TrEMBL record:
This is Glutathione S-transferase. InterPro entries: Glutathione-S-Trfase_C-like (IPR010987), Glutathione-S-Trfase_C_sf (IPR036282), Glutathione_S-Trfase (IPR040079), Glutathione_S-Trfase_N (IPR004045), GST_C (IPR004046), Thioredoxin-like_sf (IPR036249). The lineage of its organism: Bacteria, Pseudomonadati, Pseudomonadota, Alphaproteobacteria, Hyphomicrobiales. Keywords: Transferase. PROSITE patterns: GST_CTER, GST_NTER. Pfam families: GST_C (PF00043), GST_N_2 (PF13409). Residues 1-82 form the GST N-terminal domain.
């Protein structure tokens, strides 16, 4: 498998899932600005015309896009890892959480806050409308270790998104102690700690590369 990723982007969730499953993959870094694949200098848009990560090329050559779909593919492809759902009802709950993270947190809250070109009014609107999603998550996580009754790809995705609070000062985790405790606990999980550390180093290299090119 080939995983096209950018350091600390939402594609980190798939790296976590693959590490959790203990499987080998080729990790192909994509520059988020130029859309150049760093390994060979090719145009990533030839693989995914939208230029978005994660993108996964499976062993049979099928190209998959969209984070939730890729995470569910990895979970189902490697059932022994235990990161998928254990029943039909739980699968629906897994899908529920992947949708919630992708739409209510990822796109609705964090994308406007992280977009350097977004006007301040757009950022203010995102905060006003969507911080309640963190309130919902705070209440749900009270007394819970994971989103399901066990670690799943939904947790890999949520930890990845919560990572972004480091770059979004208006979202202070201290206001949501259950979310903060969940995040800190999962950050120590071996698959997450390894994936995060590796991508942080790649992110620093990316910043240096962009600075040198400016």
């Amino acid at each position: 498998m080939d995983l096209y990723f950018s350091p600390l982007a939402c594609s980190l969730a798939t790296r976590i899932a693959l590490y959790e499953a203990g499987v080998e993959a080729n990790y192909l870094e994509v520059d988020p600005k130029s859309k150049v694949v760093q390994k060979d200098g090719s145009d990533f848009r030839a693989v995914n015309p939208l230029g978005l990560v994660p993108t996964l090329r499976t062993d049979d050559g099928t190209v998959l896009t969209e984070n939730a779909a890729i995470l569910q593919y990895v979970a189902d492809r490697f059932p022994a890892a235990g990161i998928s759902a254990y029943s039909a009802e739980e699968r629906s709950r897994l899908h529920q959480w992947l949708c919630f993270i992708g739409t209510e947190l990822h796109k609705a809250l964090f994308v406007p806050l992280l977009d350097k070109t977004a006007p301040q009014d757009a950022k203010t609107y995102a905060l006003t409308k969507n911080l309640s999603r963190l309130d919902y998550l705070e209440n749900y996580l009270k007394g819970r270790e994971f989103l399901l009754d066990h670690f799943s790809v939904a947790d890999a995705y949520l930890v990845t998104i919560i990572n972004w609070t480091m770059a979004t000062p208006p979202v202070e985790l201290e206001k949501w102690p259950n979310v903060k405790a969940y995040y800190e606990r999962l950050r120590a999980r071996p698959s997450i700690a390894k994936a995060s550390a590796e991508e942080f180093e790649l992110y620093k290299a990316e910043l240096a590369r962009h600075k040198a090119a400016a």
